[in-house]
Amino acid sequence: IHKQVLDLYQGLHYRETIFKVGSKKIHIKAERFLSLDNVHLLVMKYGFLCEEACQITILTGIDGDVWDINGPHFKKTAYEQQEQQLSAIVTTNEGEMIIAAEMLDCSFGTNMIVHQENGLFHRVVVQAKPGREYFFYKYVSIYTSKDGVDQIKVAALAAVRESYSNGYDKLYRRHAQLWHERWLLSDVRIDGDEEAQFALRYSIYQLLAGAPIHSNRLSIPARGLSGQIYKGAVFWDTEMFMLTFFLFTQPKLARNILQYRYFALEGARKKAAEYGYRGAFYAWESQENGEDACTLFNVTDVFTERPMRTYFRDKQIHISADVVYGIWQYCKITGDDSILFEGGAEVILECARFFVSYAYFKKDKNRYEILDVTGPDEYHERVSNNAFTNYLVKHCLKVSLEVLELLKKKNESFYQNLLVKLDFTSEIPAIREMYELLYIPAPAADTMIIEQFDGYQKLEDVTLNDLKNRIKLPNEYWGGGNGLATTTRIIKQADVVLLLNLFRKEFSEEVKRANWEYYEPRTEHGSSLSHCTYAMLSTDIGKPDWAYPYFQKTATIDLTGDYKRYVGTLYIGGTHPAANGGAWMVTILGFGGLYFDGEVVTLAPKFPEKWRTLSFHVTVKEQNCEVIISKDLFTIVASSQNTRKVCFNLEGKIVENNPGQEITLPRLKNKIS
Fold first, then answer.
1. C or N terminus of the chain, fewer CB within 10 Å?
2. Would the pLDDT of 673 be above 70?
């Protein structure tokens, strides 16, 4: 018998197992948590009960035999013992230090310290009495040389002694209280759909668990905390699919996530220079220092078993624009422009400089073009004028000009010093010119379709099923130089549709509907980023019934395991925090119809048929409100801690919500969904 429970509300893992050894049964109960109060601390409570008298041997301590999917991570490991404290001192291949310190609270049996080649352990032997339950507690503290602590060994040992002194129950109560406070602002309640409710809360938990509460030099990796896939690197997924959740619920964490990009700026500058450009070219797989972990040959051809040259690293230039989009969204939603004075403006200007240096001016057409890029659809590499990329670049240029005006207006001295620091004055006319003359693919007059990139419409227009029938080996890669999809209009994931989501107020419903209907049958949804994107646009065009199946796929991806696990021979499994963020966005921005333009919170709900009520908290410009939407009512409850009114547009009716005020308003009959 075996049972595992993950308590989403309190961040606790519980396990209960009954082992049978010969004729004897042993009952195991264990719970553990990583402290939200002290991110360095891991705590475990372990109990066992034997049905018959027997000798039990417990071996627990620090195991240094760590397996790494990308090769050995530890270059040097040493173990030390100070009375009952055990510690491991590790040097990584990158030259960083890690200290793990451990203490065991065990009041039974005999305890000996056992030294092994790859570890240091407590060996506890007890003559267990039948029917008696035994418990021991384990406290572990981990510090690294990146934690800003002068003596990390001293800090680790002190932290583990303090946790031992406080005891399990006290540590757990504080941890659980902090999780409770997180959920107060982050929870979403769905009445009428238990499956959606559970999947969404799981998604929210994964986002909260992976967020860097203790540092602004870290972000959320593409596979969260689930393993070593993608080498723990940060992708554009964070700004495009995870950030929005934090902006509206946990703005301080959103700030941490974005400031990581400032500390990664030097790596982005190095990458731009590596390819012969100026400014900041952000990494496809960004490491802590901003350098790119992506290799040039990261997919293996399943037929030849040879590495394939791919261009994820070289040509996904939209990442720099995605970063700028995220920073600007932060400023708009939180009202906090101090981030611009603490690195954000420097990031934005360097990204604009990069695009000016990358773009090509076509004299005969008197316009700038963006050539030789890869958009979100990775199956079509090295294309020109990818609509998503061009729109995001134009947005980046616009933001850079607005930021310059804002800095000059608010702090002339800072503005002038930044121009000198970056040697940026000569770049401003070029940015302004490129912004005015950059080619932006427009919807076709007859079909309203936005061509994904130059020449896309000339590719073979095969159905997805027909293309799948051409597959010869299960894991063959569809992109690259000669992949199945490369010469067809089949795309890996939402591309134009993602663009329409990001700038949904700039396109008509007719354009959005036409592009959804055109691109969806041609989309493989080979990325976890795709389903939520189509779901959001479905709600935007008034089709929540279209959106719901995509929402389900997004919200349950880690619960069902129904996703692509291989690219060629490369395993890409693990959790999907971008899909977790996408599930929240579909629920709140899509079904809830939330939109904030910097002044007014708009709610235009479009519920799935079986949803009766949707409740959530939203924070804009440091003001928090609880929103409750039913089939026939809006209820808005402003926090008593708010300092000013919040303006809402409820299906066309403008209302003002003062601090502590509750507003109830009937929904329009012709809008009820």
1. N
2. no
* Mean pLDDT score of the chain: 95
- Grouping H, G, I as helix, E, B as strand and the rest as coil, residue 136 is strand
Residue 241 lies in a domain: no
In one letter, which amino acid is 535?
Answer: A
If one compares 226 and 458, the residue with the highest pLDDT of the two is: 458
Report d(CA 13, CA 6) in Å as an integer.
5
Cβ neighbors of 77 (< 8 A, separation 6 or more) are 64, 88, 89, 90, 91, 118
Map tokens 């906090």 to a residue: 336
Look up the pTM and report it. Answer: 0.96
**83 catalytically annotated:** no
Q: Residue 226 and residue 65: Cα distance in Å, rounded? A: 19
Q: Are 58 and 122 in contact (CB under 8 A)?
A: yes
**Do 523 and 530 contact (CB within 8 A), yes or no?**
yes
CATH number at residue 422: 1.50.10.10
What CATH code is carried by the domain that includes residue 605? 2.60.420.10
Among 378, 381, 451, 524, the active-site one is: 378
Query: What whole-number distance in Å separates Cα of residue 667 and Cα of residue 635?
Result: 10
- Digit-coded pLDDT (tens) for 349-385: 999 999 999 999 999 999 999 999 999 999 999 999 9
Element (H, E) at 299: strand 299-300
265 membership: H or E segment, kind and range:
helix 265-274
Structure confidence at residue 672 (pLDDT): 46
* 519 and 585 share one domain: no
Domain match, 353 and 313 both: yes
Same domain, 618 and 655: yes
Backbone angles phi, psi at 638, to 5 degrees: -80, 140
Q: Are residues 92 and 191 in the same domain?
A: no
Question: Using CA of residue 384, residue 388, residue 390, residue 396, what is the dihedral sign?
Answer: negative
> What distance in Å separates the CA atoms of residue 591 and residue 635, rounded to the nearest whole number?
16
| pLDDT tens-digit series, residues 29-68 | 999 999 999 999 999 999 999 999 999 999 999 998 887 7
C-alpha closest to that of 572 among 288, 323, 233:
233
Same domain, 197 and 165: no
Pairing of strands 600-603, 646-650: parallel
Q: How far is CA 608 from the centre of its chain?
A: 26
Count up the domains in the chain and report the number.
3
Is 531 a domain residue?
no
Shared domain check, 223 and 137: no
Let me know: does 379 contact 483? Beta carbons within 8 Å: yes
Reported as a single tens digit per residue, the pLDDT across 300-347 is 899 999 999 999 999 999 999 999 999 999 999 999 999 999 999 999
Has residue 481 got a pLDDT over 90?
no
pLDDT tens for residues 555-585? 999 999 877 777 777 777 788 999 999 999 9
Final residue belonging to a domain, choices 158, 181, 204: 181
375 and 446 in one domain? Answer: yes
Would you say residue 530 lies in a domain?
no
The parent domain of residue 627 ranges over: 187-229+553-673
